[in-house]
Write a structure and sequence with these properties.
The protein is α/β, with parallel strands linked by helices. It has helices at residues 7-15, 28-37, 48-51, 63-76, 94-107, 122-130, 159-175, 187-196, 217-220, 238-255; strands spanning 20-24, 41-44, 81-85, 112-116, 135-140, 179-183, 201-204, 212-215. It has one domain: Phosphoenolpyruvate-binding domains (TIM Barrel), CATH 3.20.20. Helix 8 (187-196) links the parallel strand 6 and strand 7 (201-204). Helix 2 (28-37) packs across helix 4 and helix 7 runs parallel beside helix 8. Bound molecules: 3-methyl-2-oxobutanoic acid.
Length: 277
């Protein structure tokens, strides 16, 4: 029997020294597969802008679409801890951010929202938290600040960078962030954050100290055409399998071997002979 995973569950796993697994999901069947596989948390990430829509940056992702996809993911995975990623569009003001968060929680049933945030956003995080929203502050590499595909670079790789990361983390947690997500930093940097905060910390290419880890599902399944980041374990080659299956379909059509007898609807009654007048 499955049990709904909550913020408290993730906190208990952290306290027990047990790690949790998070993946991205943008659709119903992926969400179903993830829940069946025991994934603890799903992120409807704005990475869908690059992964699904083929954009070169995550900036153009519309909130409306994200909410629709989050609803589908919730239908597929009613028990996971579900996180809606607040897209760049919502970062215009504290009001637009709070309105976006309300849509994810009320319309899609998300348990939390993720915000790419720095120390400059503490007032917004505080406002979300005051409104009862469970906020995950995303620090380190923040893809919404990246405008071209070659702009994705690891962060906090020197002592000053680590200090800034820790300052951001502390300020955002003090403001009310219930969790952190750290992307693309060396293990020493994430370990420094983990020494400073008591909330669960999710790593995305951030080393083993993190309490949980997330990667983009399509990267892990070998479904993306660009080389995934170095921290992604590629556990399947579904993209190659998908292309091979499609090629086989084309070949069957061209050879006339499809449709075969097993693909045809038989008549229930024998056809009536044609009458001529
Ligand atoms: O949008 C996303 O999928 C993300 C993860 C890669 C952390 O932010």
């Amino acid at each position: 029997m499955s049990q709904r995973i909550t913020l408290q569950t993730l906190g208990e796993l952290k306290s027990a020294g047990r790690k949790f697994a998070m993946l991205t999901a943008y659709d119903f069947p992926t969400a179903q597969a993830a829940q069946q596989a025991g994934v603890h948390a799903l992120l409807v990430g704005d990475s869908m802008g690059t992964v699904l829509l083929g954009h070169t940056s995550t900036r153009g992702v519309p909130l409306n679409l994200m909410v629709i996809l989050a609803e589908a993911v919730r239908r597929g995975a009613p028990d996971v801890f579900l996180v809606g990623d607040l897209p760049h569009e919502t970062m215009q003001s504290c009001e637009t951010l709070c309105a976006g968060a309300r849509r994810f929680t009320r319309e899609a049933g998300c348990d939390a929202v993720k915000v790419e945030a720095g120390i400059e956003h503490v007032a917004w995080i505080a406002e979300l938290a005051r409104g009862g929203v469970c906020v995950i502050a995303h620090i380190g590499l923040r893809p919404q600040s990246v405008l071209s595909p070659d702009g994705y670079r690891a962060q906090a790789r020197d002592a000053d960078g680590v200090l800034r990361l820790v300052d951001d983390a502390r300020a955002l947690v003090d403001a009310g962030a219930a969790m952190l997500l750290i992307e693309a930093v060396p293990p020493d940097a994430s370990a420094a954050v983990l020494r400073e905060v008591s909330v669960p910390v999710i790593g995305c290419g951030a080393g083993p100290a993190c309490d949980g880890h997330v990667v983009v599902t399509e990267d892990m399944l070998g479904l993306t055409t660009v080389r995934p980041p170095r921290f992604v374990p590629v556990h399947a080659a579904l993209g190659a399998e998908r292309s091979a299956a499609m090629r086989r379909w084309v070949e069957e059509i061209e050879a006339g071997t499809y449709p075969g007898p097993q693909h045809l609807y038989p008549m229930r009654t024998a056809p009536q002979p044609q009458t001529t007048t």
